[in-house]
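User: For my dataset I need records formatted as: sequence, then structure tokens, nothing else. Please produce one.
Assistant:
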Amino acid sequence: MFIGIDLGTSAVKIVLVDDRQRIVSAVEEALNPVQPRPGWSEDDPDEWWRAIERGMGRLAAAQDLAAVLAVGLSGQMHGALLLDGSDRPVRPVILWNDGRAASEAAELARDAGLQHQLGVLSMPGFTAPKLLWLARHEPAAFGRARHLLLPKDYIRLKLSGEYATDVVDASGAWLVDQARRRWSMQALAACGTDPAWLPRLCESPEPTGQIRPTLAARWGMGPGVTIAAGAGDVAAGGVGIGHVAEGQAFLSLGTSAQIFVSDAAYRPNPDRLVHAFCHALPRTWFRMAALLNGASPLAAAARWLGQADIRQLLEETERHYTGPSALLALPYLTGERTPHNDPHARGVIFGLGLSTQSTDIVQAFLEGVAFSLADGLAVLEGVGPRLDSLAFIGGGTRSAFWGRIIAAVLGVTLIRYQAAERGPAFGAARLARLSISGEDPAAVATKPPIDGVIVPDPALQDAYAARLPAFRALYQALRKQFRHG
């Protein structure tokens, strides 16, 4: 048996998978990142570990873990986590959706050759600009640093005592020579980072150590449980649904959102803000449109409206749905990457009137995220073939209603696989299996059974196509205002 642990932004998800690749048990523990200032986003790494301990405790109470052979890790990317010589964080981790390093990112972006080597234009959410920001604005904390880890790799350290990461997660740090799949000394020099801080860089299926004996005994595991290198969450999700071969594409809708295309070669195109990174199997890469705002605007809208039950709110919105909303919503609550690279962008509701209902606001945000996904798809299709269908993974897949809106706006068929909302954790469990089995990765990273298919409604396609230009025009009208407040 194998365990996959996915350290998300809003929750930790843990799955137990048997030898027939069936999810035997799954647990989830909530996380609560904070926004200490507008445009900032941070979390406490020790809260992550406490959530892991709670989740693993619940899993061990529900299932016998004595047969577990390996654990794989997946997690949110781009975090800047610095540890001192005693492996204690020097400050809270700066998360992927934090925009404070905008000027540092712009400075790093002036080197066109570096963008090509690292796979994408430098953007504020990446780790490297944050390191440069820390060196300039918090030199005392930066001076205490002795190790740089990415979020999920702090969990590895706590589990095993090993400093290691994988090529996918490291790619998202904006510190990896993507073609050569190794650390970029040029990027490290540009952001003033000591190479001695770096963890060992591994391919995703590589073993990186073993569970500490005390933890294994606490959770009822045998000795010598291997920990696979794992992968950043989106690529792990691709492994979870068997999308690792050339041209296979999917849409991931979690706290953030991505449209992802697997490649057999490295194909960077930084000028169009496409992310080109290492994939989770050796000699594979991917291109991606990355959106900072996926399901998070929906959660925020529910909070503003005083609705704790998001599922009920979606059901009510669906009952009142008659077609495209009269409102327009920009969903950029934490800025946006593809296609704008704009950390200053913010959320907007346009067209409010006395008759506006809470469901109108919810629908407008659902549509706003769909419109921003259309922008991301347009960028990808500008450097590749037309995509007629996308696999559909992430927590957002729980809402078939939202899926119908997205399919209509994008004009693509969405294919949902079983356990699609747990894709990264399941992919991490598959990487755990590969770390010890010696199997052909293609034989393990297969497509799960299809759980449903959403075909775009032609009438809705036409209706939404008429609204998309207004969505784009609203952002352009406000772009300068966002920057200057």
